Every structure is written in structure tokens, then in C-alpha cells.
Amino acid sequence: MLPRILRPEQLQGFRFSDSDHCRLSLLHDPEQATAATVFLEIHDPSDRVPPHAHHHAAELFFVLRGQVLFHVGEACIRARGGDVVVVPEDAFHDLENPGPGRLYLLTVLSGDADFAEVLRHGIPTPLDAEDLAVLRSL
Fold first, then answer.
1. C-alpha 57: how far from its chain's center?
2. Alpha-carbon distances, residue 124 vs 4, 42, 130 (angstroms)
3. pLDDT tens digits along 79-128
4. Of the residues 5, 49, 73, 105, which has the fewest C-beta atoms closer than 10 A?
């Protein structure tokens, strides 16, 4: 199998619901539920992901641009562009974008557990000109 290249304009964003401001774009769709899923997250200022846990899956976040607050248990961790944050499996966590600009994360979920399938059934939401310009500038 040959490697493939994805250009920013080829990425398809998805939201989980009409009220969700976060856009997710699947970069690697695993063939098995135990394989890693890789996706791009784009969060508007003041966006907050509800508290949740991934059972039997760790999550690695590479902050591409912006700042993010991670709430893991009682801890609050601030990360910014260039930082990597690893949330252990089964850890109850959420994240928020304190602003002022958009937050861009490259996220790896160690075990998919059908996350890619759920994402593909979300609401298609194209990446906008700002998103494409940021991705091209990385």
C-alpha cells in the first residue's frame, strides 16, 4: 500500500450536533476498533468539550495553535502551541479554549472504539478559509 497525502482543502469537518461549535476532521480511520484514530480538532473561543472518559484508550493532544485548558480530575492544565498533553485511559476529562483565537489540536485516540464511525455520522461542516490558512501555515 502506498502512502497517501491529505491536503487541507481535502479535509471534511464534522460536528456531533447542531449546537456543537467544535469541528473534527478524521485524518486516519482505523480498520479495527483497537487501532488508533487520528483527527484534527478545531475549537472556537470559549468552546468547551463536555466531561467524558475513553474506556481502554489514552488520548494524545498535540497543540498546533492556540491555548487549551485540560481538566483532568481535580487538576487543570494549560497548554499552548507546541505542547503535547497525554490523558491516560479511563481518565475523566474535558477541555476548553480560553481564547482569544481558535484552538487547533492534532489528536490521537489509542483505541478507536467506533469513534471514527460516530464522527462520520456527524453533521458535515466544511473547514472555512481561516482554518485552511492556519493549516497551510503550520
1. 14
2. 22, 14, 17
3. 999 999 999 998 999 999 999 999 999 999 987 677 788 888 899 999 99
4. 5
- 4 domain residue, yes or no: no
* Domain residue limits at 80: 22-123
Sheet holding 75-80, edge to edge: 48-52, 93-96, 67-72, 75-80
84, 49 Cβ separation under 8 angstroms: no
Assign 3-state DSSP to the chain and report helix, strand, coil percentages, each to 5.
15, 40, 45
| 54 three-class SS | coil
80: enclosing H helix or E strand: strand 75-80
Kindly compute the dihedral angle of the four CA atoms of residues 11, 12, 18, 23, in this order, to the nearest 10 degrees: -20
51 domain residue, yes or no? yes
Matching residue, cell 464511525: 117
On whether residue 5 sits in a domain, the answer given is no
Give the model confidence (pLDDT) of 18-33 as tens digits. Answer: 888 899 999 987 776 5
Global confidence as pTM: 0.91
Q: How far apart (Å, rounded) are the C-alpha atoms in residues 82 and 130?
A: 20
